[in-house]
Predict the structure.
Amino acid sequence: MIRAKKKFGQNFLTDESIKRQIIQAIPNDLERIVEIGPGLGDLTQKLVQLSGKIECFEIDSELYEILLDKFASEILEQKLKITNADALESWDEIARQDYFLVANLPYYVATNIILKALSDSRCNGLVVMIQKEVALKFSAQPGDSEFSALAILAGVRGDAELLFDVPATAFNPEPKVVSAVIRIIKNRDLLQGFEALEFERFLKSAFSSPRKTLLKNLSISIPKSLIEGFLTKENLSLTIRPHELCVALYLKLFKEAKNERRECTNSR
Ligand code: SAM
């Protein structure tokens, strides 16, 4: 019997009906699915029946050996490839062709992995299980108290949905938190031509103190008069909070601030 390793965020999914629901949430006819953290291979087993090409990245070398054994024939038939590596350090390999990401993600690295997949143009979308608290942040709508920089980063690339909750009893060992499955289908890139990192910094500043006004938060990095002018022009209150502005207006404000900075630099 394998002992789950806390340092790798190992909570193995044992509930058959949840496994089925995850598989049902994956779009049909995918050419290449990447699974991060196959663990004992329970989801992998179902994925190989779904799509022509599955590639898995597992950090734990003990689990890797078990997986090689379990899937010897699928590997031989080239339906499945398993790499023993940290997924975050193998992104060039993950992104060498288009892919759809499926995973029961380890909590400690889930947000980073989703952000990486969102900013990766090779990724067509994802169905992942994560901590519910984080799932709400990615899938919240403008006006919801959970609406955050994560929801905006998802919203500029596609539609994020929280599909269903997963109780701790669905895992072994049981995690201390409730989990949820989210799906993001990447069907747009509203950031095209703009620096993703710069937009992330802008959002960090916008949400630096979620209870303060957007004007107060952003005026640390952008001229106050520009933000006031923007909010007035859009018929918005100067006391609007960061979670109340929609994705399109965040982008518009970001672009206006960037153009203003460019004009200032050019006129020097
Ligand atoms: N997919 C399995 C399941 O649903 O039962 C296991 C899920 S468990 C929550 C997370 C898995 O990710 C573990 O197998 C763990 O070893 C692996 N893992 C953790 N960090 C990783 C990383 N940086 N890169 C690749 N795999 C990782």
